[in-house]
Design brief:
Strand order of the largest sheet: 1-2
Order of helices and strands: HEEHHHHHHHH
Helix content: 55-70%
Strand content: under 5%
Number of helices: 9
Number of strands: 2
Distance between the termini: 80 Å
Radius of gyration: 23 Å
């Protein structure tokens, strides 16, 4: 099954784009997002549906990745999420061993020079994705905004009282 994630040749499982194009693997989806027009992307991922989510969940049974992209309506955010997922596969356990396995999974052989750049991009995208997520993990205290509001309100009332007494 893992080989199919990166290199699939079954015509009936390919993702059909609204413009007639097709995507045969998750790796190919990652690569195509840069070249895909906004119109085509938004046709498949919008407020009403996310065809990429359904395809990854139903065809590849990759629920972790599917749930990461489920509500994404921006192709750059989706590319970062997929890149992060690919990077995690590369870094699970023994990085070198997994990288070699991943290479075989994607092509059945060795990566071509251009494909090495794709994986490098995926690793860079995943770092940005992790940094974005880490920035969101900061706790938000329930009263932090309320204290500032009350302090500003009191200062405002005092300013009004001082100005009206002059």
């Amino acid at each position: 099954m893992h080989r199919d994630i990166f290199f699939m040749k079954e015509e009936e499982r390919a993702f059909r784009l609204c413009n007639g194009g097709k995507i045969e693997s998750i790796k190919e989806l990652y690569e195509q997002l840069d070249r895909m027009s906004e119109e085509v992307f938004l046709y498949h991922a919008n407020e009403d549906k996310n065809d990429f989510y359904n395809w990854i969940k139903d065809v590849f049974q990759q629920n972790n990745l599917a749930h990461r992209i489920r509500y994404l309506k921006d192709k750059h955010a989706m590319k970062k999420a997929i890149g992060g997922w690919i990077s995690e596969l590369l870094h699970e356990g023994h990085a070198d061993e997994n990288k070699a396995k991943l290479t075989d999974k994607m092509t059945g052989d060795k990566l071509l020079p251009g494909e090495k750049l794709v994986m490098k991009d995926a690793e860079q995208d995943s770092t940005c994705y992790r940094n974005d997520i880490n920035g969101l993990k900061k706790p938000i205290h329930a009263f932090s905004g309320a204290v500032d509001f009350i302090l500003g309100f009191v200062v405002g009332i005092l300013a009004i009282l001082i100005l009206t007494s002059l």
